[in-house]
Design a protein that fits this description.
This protein is 71% helix and 11% strand. It is an alpha+beta fold and 411 residues long. The longest helix has 69 residues, at 101-169.
Length: 411
């Protein structure tokens, strides 16, 4: 049993260089290269761009002038009194509705603000997509750091097991120390296997966000130790309220709803059309020109006006809710950034160094027989816990910065 576990650990340790180091044939991508690939290949972004094109088409439709109406009638005249002429008769009429300039302006404004809303929606979707891509990118870096850490743990556990086996065989140590060393080796082996699987899972998640253009096997270029500069909270709040695409979309929807309400009110006014007509029969030709007026007596458009007013109130409420949600999300992300930064500083400058120093002391004491294996293993666990906390804290710091950048729309 012990030989099998020892052999499995040795095989896993031998396989680690291929798992943790970049493969020779696997391409390597920086974060910016992955972002560019996602912009070019992700199908959801193509759908968002198509919606923007649909908004431009609506602006074109809003600017179109009404088409003329042509009416042609043909028939025959029949005499009702003796001596009257009979023969063919035709009637031609052309009616051109006059586009109300105030209605046209309101209609164009409503369509233009609708286009602004769709463009902001497209920017917001792209911003969110790139933020999730960055999260997956740093998650992969975190998992790779965990693989390297578990590789060190497994190598150390294998060395300890070998040393303990020698001491047990020579009678210098009791047999329970070998059992304890085997247990630690099995735990290290389990952690190593889990870390390798998490790397594959993180790589697949990143590939799903980039698109099919990314190969199945690839590596990333980056580091968890980057320290981006984040402005003060007050500056961030003003920047978010000025640049966030979700808020820009809400503001455009409010302006669109305002102009739509103006348009519905303007449609209560009479509509004018110019009409030219000509009648011909076997004896006479009659030409006429005049106007046609549509008088809003029965339909005062009370329903459309009330509906547009309700939609305007809804848009304004959504804008206020969006502003509140953005400010709260920014404050939460900033507090998380401060917490993670404090943890990283504490772990880098104090806790990890002390745990590493304690591990070296315990290792020396065990080597000279001053301490037992339990003290040495306890010191190892403390060091591993501090190291894993540092990896997690660096990852949480990157997530907080990504969330702040997403709200600032700096993706």
């Amino acid at each position: 049993m012990l030989r099998k576990s020892f052999l499995a650990a040795a095989l896993l340790l031998a396989a680690f260089p291929a798992l943790s180091a970049p493969a020779a044939a696997a391409p390597s991508y920086s974060l910016q290269a992955l972002r560019d690939a996602a912009r070019a290949n992700h199908p959801s972004l193509e759908a968002a761009r198509a919606l923007v094109e649909a908004g431009r088409a609506q602006v074109t439709s809003a600017g179109a002038y009404p088409n003329p109406e042509v009416e042609f009638l043909a028939g025959r005249t029949h005499a009702r009194v003796p001596g009257a002429s009979t023969g063919g008769a035709q009637s031609l009429a052309v009616t051109q509705r006059i586009d109300n300039p105030w209605q046209r302006e309101a209609r164009l404004d409503a369509a233009g603000f609708g286009l602004d809303a769709r463009q902001a929606e497209r920017r917001g979707f792209e911003n969110d997509l790139l933020a999730r891509l960055e999260q997956r990118f740093f998650e992969l870096l975190r998992r790779q750091a965990e693989v390297r850490a578990t590789k060190e743990d497994l190598s150390l556990a294998e060395q300890i097991r070998s040393k303990v086996a020698v001491r047990v065989d020579t009678g210098e140590s009791p047999r329970y120390e070998l059992i304890k060393a085997d247990t630690e080796l099995l735990n290290a082996q389990k952690s190593a296997e889990s870390a390798v699987l998490r790397v594959a899972q993180a790589r697949a998640g990143l590939r799903a966000l980039v698109g099919v253009g990314l190969p199945v096997e690839f590596e990333v270029e980056g580091s968890l130790t980057r320290s981006p500069v984040v402005p003060p909270l007050d500056d961030l709040r003003a920047e978010v309220l000025a640049r966030n695409p979700d808020l820009a979309r809400s503001q455009a929807e409010v302006r669109r709803a305002e102009r739509q309400l103006d348009l519905e009110r303007l449609r209560r006014h009479p509509e004018l059309a110019l009409k030219v007509a000509e009648d011909r029969d076997s004896e006479m030709r009659n030409s006429r020109i005049g106007v046609t007026l549509s008088v809003p007596i029965w339909d005062r458009r009370q329903g459309p006006i009330a509906e547009a007013g309700a939609l305007l109130a809804k848009s304004r409420s959504e804008q206020s809710a969006q502003e509140l949600a953005l400010v709260q999300a920014l404050e939460t992300a900033y507090r998380q950034y401060e917490i993670a930064r404090t943890q990283v500083i504490a772990l880098e400058n104090g806790i990890l160094r002390e745990a590493e120093a304690a591990l070296k002391v315990a290792e020396a004491a065990y080597r000279f027989g001053e301490r037992g294996i339990l003290d040495y293993l306890d010191a190892q666990r403390v060091f591993r816990a501090a190291r894993n906390e540092l990896i997690a804290a660096r990852y949480e710091l990157q997530l907080a910065v990504i969330d702040i950048e997403r709200l600032r729309a700096t993706q």
